[in-house]
Give the backbone structure.
Amino acid sequence: MPERTRHDEQFLDLPAEDEATAGEHLDTQVQKAQEQLLQLKRQQELIERQKRELEELSRRQEQLQSGKAEMIEKFTRALVVVERESYDAQKRVEQLLAIHDSFQQHLDMLESINPKGWEGLDINKELSKSLSAIDDARTEYTRSVPKISPESDPGDDPMASTVGSSYGVSMEPARDFVYWLKAGTAFTLPLIIALIIFVMLILSAISHT
């Protein structure tokens, strides 16, 4: 029979209580390892969740910065346009108000001209004064009307159609006699032709009786 080694003898000589203690110790180590593994898994999940939150936070921060930069640039440009348009509009209003005042002064001057009230005055002088006022009014009107409607042609009078339509006055040229003669002929010609055909039918019927 082979000779036992010292280690085997020591193991075989262990009391039953020591064997139970060794088994409990091993179970405790396994349980601790499982608990550590579970804790590491929870920490990993926590780290991954924090990572996702940080990525989302970074994405939103980038969105904030890009959106902020975009809108700042747009509003900056828009404000420049608005300021320029406001300045132009203000100048336009000032120009129109000045034209209004000038037109009103010329209108008052023209309406005040009354040749019937020149009795006893120097008619030649009054005529010269009145004609000069009319020339000044015409010059001012010709100079200012293009400023009122810049898009109109230089040779057109944009105020004529406006004034005419306001008072119900037709601005079409007067029709001469030849125009109305042609128009009347065009209107009555079908009736004349129908009448001729009717008369010919009657004569044909009479000739066959």
Q: What stands out?
A: The chain is about 80% helix and 0% strand. The two ends are 169 Å apart (CA to CA).
